[in-house]
UniProtKB/TrEMBL annotation:
The chain crosses the membrane at residues 20-47, 76-94, 106-127, 169-191. It comes from Archangium gephyra. This is 4-alpha-methyl-delta7-sterol-4alpha-methyl oxidase. Keywords: Membrane, Transmembrane, Transmembrane helix. Pfam families: FA_hydroxylase.
Amino acid sequence: MEGSITSLDSILEMYQEERFFLIAICSTLLSIAAFLAFALPWTWVAYKNPESLKKYRVQGRDIPVKRWFAPSLQRFAINSLVSFLGVLVAWPVLRRSGIHAGELPAWYVMVGQIAFFIVLDDLLYYWMHRAMHTRWLYKHVHSVHHRITTPYALTGNYMHAFEFMMTSTLVLVGPSLVGAHVVTLWAWIVFRQLEAADGHSGYDVPWNPALLIPFYKGPAYHDFHHRRFFGNYAGFFAYLDKVFGGTWSKGYEEYRRAQQQRPEPQPQPEP
């Protein structure tokens, strides 16, 4: 009996650690806040669909904002809860990952680590996403996300709970491998949610601040995946689809070439 009490006390102590609060609780809350901060402004744009931005729409279809707004919020809330419960169960293992709250590393170390996370996560996500398009996984899991054929930002996390947990697990792989500082983990989570919201925004505007990120091709890349249901499997780097079997979505190359040849707007003469 005494041994059982001691064992229980040891388990409870793990969940009273500062790192549990920082890594599990704070990261979950930050993930929710970051996604909504990035997604809601673009969702408002999609709802208003201003005339001045219609020329930048990737698809010409109507944007079903009202239809998917409440379901998207509900899915995101449930998925975030399920993901947190997953971290809760996995904490005895995750706490050994090396993610720490010690001395903050130099900024260039943090930037280098995040760059590594982007490359690694995108490679892993590419193959996970291709696997999601195999018959059984597509039918029972990934088809939930593909109910959205004309995406807007808030639909970025509308997906089956299993797929959400798998995606969230991939996000932790890089930080766990290098033993990142928790602040680096937070910065990476914010970036990943920017990618999720922006990639589903549906507007390929040339002044999108996210295009300042090297090698990012903008929302059109993933939008074509929703439109065609095939290809453009990577989350960030379009080159992966070219390297691993030429899996660009039909029409994407033509669209990108047309965008590159589009003339720049000329300044209007003053009256």
